[in-house]
Design goal:
mainly alpha, Ferritin, single chain, 199 residues, 77% helix
């Protein structure tokens, strides 16, 4: 496609975001299913509903542009989702997987925040006031999702780090066996189990 003006670039970036959101709608249920932490699972489920709303807003914008949102694949989002899928193939402790899922999800949020911030600015320049409003709503939700993930990571990262201590304690190399433990022993989920859960 020839791009002779900012409006052409604006439409192309909106198509890229639309593809990204559609891919995320398909990926979030897998991430929620594989999250062990109930708060993280709920966060993914809630953001799925928000993401479906992001798709609907973009479709409204394309209706006003009398254009189709389809025809472009967001390879950036495709790569981020593939990294999350690779994580789920690992033979890892539940808390470690949760910490990794938060990391991958925040990579996604930062990618989307950058994209929506850009198109929101372009919409302002182009005088598309209604688009600005819709894009700002989505941008705010992406920022809120990122902030929630940051809060959840504080506890999840500590749990993931504690796994090393618990493993050492079980071998008699670290803490005393008589020392009280604040949480039950965690299980390891094999890559086979992960693969099954993803489907």
């Amino acid at each position: 496609m020839e791009m002779d003006a900012l409006r052409d670039l604006y439409v192309e970036e909106l198509k890229d975001l639309y593809s990204a959101e559609k891919q995320l709608v398909r990926a979030l249920p897998k991430m929620a299913k594989n999250a062990a932490n109930p708060d993280l699972k709920e966060a993914f489920q809630n953001h799925l509903a928000e993401t479906e709303g992001h798709v609907a807003r973009l479709e409204k914008i394309f209706e006003s542009l009398e254009s189709s949102p389809r025809g472009k694949k967001c390879v950036g989002m495709e790569g981020l989702i593939e990294e999350a899928n690779e994580l789920l193939e690992e033979d890892a402790d539940e808390d470690v997987v949760d910490a990794g899922l938060i990391s991958k999800a925040q990579h996604v949020e930062h990618y989307e925040i950058a994209g929506y911030g850009t198109v929101r600015t372009w919409a302002e320049i182009l005088g598309e006031d209604r688009h600005v409003e819709l894009l700002q709503q989505t941008l705010d939700e992406e920022k809120n999702a990122d902030a929630l993930l940051s809060r959840l990571s504080q506890g999840v990262n500590i749990e993931a780090e504690a796994g090393d201590d618990e493993a050492a304690a079980s071998d008699g190399n670290s803490r005393s066996r008589s020392m009280p433990r604040s949480r039950s022993a965690k299980t390891m989920r094999s890559s086979t189990t992960r693969r099954t859960a993803k489907r």
